[in-house]
Model the fold of this input.
Amino acid sequence: MQFGNSAAAGLLQQRGRPDLTIVGGVSVGQVIAFANQKGGVAKTTTTLNLGVALVERGKRVLCVDLDPQSNLTMSQGIDPDDLERTMFDVLVHKTPIEDVILRREIDLAASSIDLAGAELALSSMIGRERALQKALLPVRSAYDYILIDTPPSLGLLTINALTASDGVIVPVQCEYLSLRGLIQLENTLTMIRENLNPDVRIKGILPTMFDGRTLHSREAVEILQENFGDLVFETKIRKTIRYAEAPVKGTSVLKYDSKGNAAKAYRDLAGEVLRNGKAK
Ligand SMILES: Nc1ncnc2c1ncn2[C@@H]1O[C@H](COP(=O)(O)OP(=O)(O)OP(=O)(O)O)[C@@H](O)[C@H]1O
Ligand SMILES: [Mg+2]
Done:
């Protein structure tokens, strides 16, 4: 099944940049957003577990919680209601991002439900789409990877994430209806490239909640590969309850069940991200 060439071609055109970016003459790490306007496709799970897998490989990683649901913050055992300052203050009050970073398995720029008010507060500001990009500038050289978890919508928070990013990883649940949503995301990315960030590209499409026992899951991966070729990561994240269990303990799955297959999947993904930083 084909989605129509323009969507696939649009996704495929943005490739082949080196792993490191140069900003103001200094080489800095990569900023990657995890985006898909569909809810519950494993954006947060992937942001955290890929982040921890990269830390295991010796990389310096900052994860930014840009979702008012604060699932990323909670999945590191933090109660968002206890936080004095969050990403809301960074975006709206220009609080330095260093002031909201907590050191956990990864460094985490934390959020709370307050962030829900950021879209409205930002909407009347000049440069509203670039608030995150600006906030990240002072810390970009301190990290090899800055991973941004986004909410399940294509609103101003996600637009800020895409504007601040070098690349986007798109987790896609292995089912037909999830695949259709990719076209909407590509339309948003086209708009971002035209107006805000000409360099942002899809770094990879990650099949998640894969169930190899069902024909539907296998077919969904085939459709992705047919349409998006080697933009689809070789790593597929299988369906397992481990991913839901780990956040209850306030940890990544790599710590919760370090030797299990769920942890291995994200270690494999980290290997691909490190290898393919240049190619995808
Ligand atoms: N591979 C998987 N197998 C089974 N369950 C998973 C898998 N990955 C994530 N989950 C679970 O599915 C739910 C949704 O995952 P997650 O919160 O990461 O998605 P999301 O895309 O960030 O959601 P939202 O759009 O609401 O932010 C969570 O309960 C999570 O623990
Ligand atoms: Mg989430």
Summary: DSSP finds twelve helices and nine strands in the chain.
